[in-house]
Amino acid sequence: MAKKLYHGAAYYPELWPEAIIEEDIKFMLEAGINVVRMGEFAWSTLEKEEGSIDLSFFVNVIKRLNEHGIETVMCTPTPTPPIWLTHDHPERMHVNQEGHVMVHGSRQHICTNNPVFREKAAIITEEIAKAIGNLQGVIAWQLDNEFKCHVNECFCDTCKTLWHQWLEERYGTIDVLNEAWGTDIWSQYYQRFGQIPQPKAAPFLHNSSLTTMYQIFSYEKIAEFADEQAEIIRHYSNAPITHNSTTFFHVDNERLFENLDFASFDTYAEKSNFASYLFNCDLWRNLKVGKDFWVMETSPSHAASLASHSASHPNGYLKAEAVASYALGGEAFCYWLWRQQRTGCEQPHGSVLSAWGKPTVGFENVKEVEVARKEIESMILSTRPLQAEVAITYSDIARAFFKTEPHRELVYRDLMIKFYENILSNGYHRDLITENASLQGYKLLFTPFLPNVSTTYLERAKRFVEEGGVWVIGPLTGGRTEHHTIHRDAGLGELEEFAGIETLFTYPMDGTESVGEFLGIEAPLSLWSAIFEPKDANVVGSIKEGISTGKAFITEQRRGKGKIVMLGSLPVGEEGDKLLSTLINHYAEEANVRSHTDVSQGTIVAPREKNGELVWVVVNMDGNGGTVTLQMNGVDGITGEPIPKGPIEIGAFQYRIIHFRG
Ligand SMILES: [Zn+2]
Prior knowledge:
Blueprint: E1 6-10, H1 20-31, E2 35-38, H2 43-46, H3 56-67, E3 71-75, H4 83-86, H5 115-132, E4 138-142, H6 157-171, H7 174-181, H8 208-234, E5 241-242, E6 244-245, H9 253-256, E7 264-266, H10 274-284, E8 293-298, E9 304-305, E10 308-309, H11 317-327, E11 330-335, H12 363-381, E12 384-385, E13 390-394, H13 396-404, H14 412-425, E14 430-434, E15 444-447, H15 455-466, E16 470-473, H16 495-499, E17 501-508, E18 515-518, E19 521-526, E20 528-534, E21 538-545, E22 552-559, E23 562-567, E24 570-571, H17 573-590, E25 603-610, E26 613-620, E27 626-630, E28 634-636, E29 642-643, E30 646-650, E31 655-660
Parallel strand pairs: 1-2, 1-11, 2-3, 3-4, 4-5, 6-7, 7-8, 8-11, 13-14, 13-15, 15-16, 16-23
Antiparallel strand pairs: 9-10, 12-25, 17-20, 18-19, 18-21, 19-24, 21-22, 22-23, 25-26, 26-31, 27-30, 28-29, 28-31
Helix pairs in contact: 5-8, 8-13, 11-12
The chain binds zinc ion.
Protein name: Beta-galactosidase
InterPro entries: Beta_galactosidase_Trimer (IPR013738), Class_I_gatase-like (IPR029062), GH (IPR017853), Glyco_hydro_42 (IPR003476), Glyco_hydro_42_N (IPR013529)
GO biological process, one term: carbohydrate metabolic process
């Protein structure tokens, strides 16, 4: 199969009279849709009565679409189990933390660990894989849909039993667990695994170890379900398998995608939050290294349900999003959804066609995406995204720690995106990488908001430093053990010796009117902070005002050919952004980071390469237009005109392709 860039939509032909398929195909061809995703909510269509499974409808639709060159991503329908599986079976349903048992309807109402559900899910998955796995036009699989989007950990009895087994596998003996969790506190001591509660409603907060471990348990169980489904499909089909996830569902994406073939994500960020859109591209590109990611769902105009809606995209923004994702490593840009839903709870959601079969407000924008896709396709297919030199570690395990310990309602994802924006807006090409990712090829590594620095992460990062990398650690990094307890040997554990510091105190800076200084820039400090005493490190950032005046909050220490930098607090406000920018630029220069431009804020440069030839895709995301300086002469990738070195301009939501030779 020849490689191509996909432009797709989620399609629900099972909800419409069959005659409408012809009309849909006509509009799909007009809009440039070359792939659809189907089947993820169609369990009751496929298996109306338990045991009588009929795939002929979808087989027929897939064939008809394929006759027109429209390919299919087929899904397993497990997010919406049918009534015969749920009726009169409260023990199969998802139970939330308050003990409420979910009823039928909506979606994700069943416990994915329930053995009866798993048996029925395996049967329907196998039948779909058998009937559809080798059909022409089926190019990929999506498992389920948005795992743990609407629900988090389940508290049913099935999960209770599995939880006890999981703990026993993890800790071995109850004494090891008691010691690791410090259960003498508040008389929590357990005599055996079967006594350990699920962290349901309690008079006050649960032990941090219990709360965090229950999340990690839940992460692993949903990933096991994905593994099981993928294995069934692989018996019958060679098409690659993915799942559509995000960074706010209750999953560990690194673990979830471990046994899947490519990464895909859903995003409904508004234009005002384009940094979040780019954050996703920079993360999912690196989740399956060397594999293109898919934007599996995004709205052609706005996201909405019966109870909410986002701001509609300005005209032109959709094209900027599409070009940015293709340039940053995307193979597909797909809408949710093709035809507006007539029923259910998402009728107001943006779509390409309305429920009454007419183009929506997004339709012309979708056509613009198609023009752009065609224009850049051969360039994208003949190049690869350049590996960044600046990496930021992203961790869903860290996210679980913050959920257990949010201080003042801290949200991991928001903290990370804000931190990422500092690097983005300073013109660095950047990779967001997972905790277990290789550090090969990077020059500057940021590890913010990682409460537990695992021994394996620390060893990898130490090697990175010794071989010449600059590693910036913090804020809020290193203060917790893997069991979500506090270190006994040092405030930030093993990290301190390597960093050449000792943590004197940790406390929240908010409300203390603390001011920190780094390279002549002063800014207010915030968040739970670590105050350092240098051992053999140098103090480069010190506290000028507040209750720790004169002490250090930024230190640096040479190790091998590189350097380790401790950032103990988060500078905030306009001055804080300035201080962080100074810090990023200072250490990027020391680390000799070269994939850096002077691109103006709101515009991005996505560098790609082929055999040493560099290609820039410049995209304006904020609608204000922008500028960037070319350091050498280039050639316009669309017109073929030479572009002399120097500054160039880019219009609102426009893109430019620039080739540099030699
Ligand atoms: Zn359960």
